Amino acid sequence: MRQSKCSIRKKKGEQMKKIVLLRHGESVWNKENRFTGWTDVDLTEKGIEEANKAGITLREYGFNFDKAYTSYLKRAVKTMNCVLDEMDLDWIPVEKSWRLNEKHYGDLQGLNKAETAEKYGEEQVLIWRRSYDIAPNPLSESDLRNPRFDYRYHKVPDAELPRTESLKDTIDRIMPYWESDIFPNLKTANTLLVVAHGNSLRGIIKHLKHISNEDIVKLNLPTAIPYVFEFDENLKVVNDYFLGNPEEIKKLMEAVANQGKKK
Questions:
Q1: What's the order of all strands across the beta sheet hosting 94-96?
Q2: Which of 17, 142, 156, 184 stands 20 to 30 A from 248 (CA)?
Q3: What is the 3-state secondary structure (H, E, C) of 153-177?
Q4: For 194, phi and psi rounded to 5 degrees?
Q5: 207 is catalytic
């Protein structure tokens, strides 16, 4: 029987190919309820604790990764480092890619979500946060937040660097990397770890679970809760579940959903 995605893995069971998706721990701007996007903010102390807890949980459930992937943003990189350290897997190969970065929120970046909802309405903020193909207003070419001014992206063609993104744009950015670099490694590896961001991971989950454009708006990922996908010998998804208490995860998801509501 297919396990609920929010159920706890009761036992290790038979060996299956697995990919674990993990959103980074709480960041400074998560705590301040700001649109973050490509802004490179750090983890809070709580975020570090969440990342360490994720590593402990994965270790206790017997996970052992062959390779890890993460974005260019420090909140994801540091979360991955904490997880691998707790699992004594600091030595495994790690690959970083700008394609795993968070959705670019354009000129919303830095704004408080609740205050933005007060100004533009909760429905509009929900569209900006969770809709499939509607992007916020873009950054101008002279805006210093524009990624073309950031040295870490100097090898990325300017035409590929976003000034804003919808979820569709984010998925279009991620999928070539997923299909060329990450997913093919599952043919020779047993278990892979992908540490990234709420929207970049929503894009991967949409792809793996064939979630409709309309239903993806309802998916909210909590910080630092491992989400496991299991695959059969043909690399077809046969099971997916969060590691953790279902009631606690439900509350965490609701808290994420409520970030875009008025105070």
A1: 94-96, 67-70, 191-196, 17-23, 227-231, 237-242
A2: 17
A3: HCCCCHHHCCCCCCHHHHHHHHHHH
A4: -125, 110
A5: no
Structure tokens at 174: 């991620």
Mean pLDDT over each residue of the chain, to the nearest integer: 91
Tokens matching residue 127:
């569209």
Handedness of CA 156, 159, 160, 165 (dihedral sign): positive
How long, in residues, is the chain?
263
Q: What is the pTM of this model?
A: 0.89
As a whole number of angstroms, the distance between CA 55 and CA 62 comes to 11
Do β-strands 94-96 and 67-70 pair in parallel, antiparallel, or remain unpaired? parallel
Token output for 218 = 């309802």
Task: Give the active site residue among 102, 104, 165, 197.
Answer: 102
Residue of 24, 86, 104, 230 marked active site: 24
Residue 147 has pLDDT above 60, yes or no: yes
Q: What is the pLDDT of residues 149-193, one digit of tens each?
A: 999 999 999 999 999 999 999 999 999 999 999 999 999 999 999
Instruction: Name 5's Cβ contacts closer than 8 Å, sequence gap at least 6.
Output: 227, 240, 241, 242
Contacts of 92 (CB under 8 A, 6+ apart): 65, 66, 67, 68, 84
Between the CA of residue 177 and those of 50, 183, 194, what are the distances in Å?
A: 27, 9, 12
Task: Report the alpha-carbon distance of residue 249 to residue 4 in Å, rounded.
Answer: 12
Query: DSSP letter at 261?
Result: S
Contact partners, residue 11, CB within 8 Å, separation at least 6: none
